[in-house]
Amino acid sequence: MHPAMAVHDSADMDENTKRPRLRIRIVFDDGEMIGPGKAELLERVDRCGSLAAAGREMGMSYKRAWQLIGILNAMFREPLVDSTRGGPGGGGAVLTEAGRKVLDLYRGFECDAAEAGAARLDTLQAMLRDVPEEK
């Protein structure tokens, strides 16, 4: 697993370092895209084994989570998530090999961009005006 594949929150600042971070969105020719939200949903599906639980953790409805996974599955040659219907035995969802690969590649882009842009981010942050701390 890629070191950057830890579940990310949706905050724009890295809470550990109080440094800005990049949010990468990859937009393909047909307008389909993968970004931080879809990547986080894939990670949570992988961890929870359930689309409903992953959606709940992100504060989204099951319907919205299902729509996003449907979009992702339709974007690629192979589905990224395989799901089974619920019922008496319960359903579930798992990342496919393609899903793991797409997620790993996406998180790799994030790491590469963060490393390549670190000096520029530091310069931009140094140019910000000071904001007084809240008491």
From TrEMBL:
Q: Which Gene3D superfamilies does this entry report, sorted A to Z?
A: Winged helix-like DNA-binding domain superfamily/Winged helix DNA-binding domain
Looking up InterPro entries in the UniProt record yields: LysR_HTH_N, Molybdate_resp_trans_reg, WH-like_DNA-bd_sf, WH_DNA-bd_sf
Q: Which SUPFAM superfamilies match?
A: Winged helix' DNA-binding domain
Sorted alphabetically, which Pfam families does this protein's record hold? HTH_1
Query: Boundaries of each HTH lysR-type domain copy?
Result: 40-100
Alphabetically, the GO molecular function entries are: DNA-binding transcription factor activity
In terms of superkingdom, the source organism counts as Bacteria
What protein am I looking at? Molybdate transport system regulatory protein
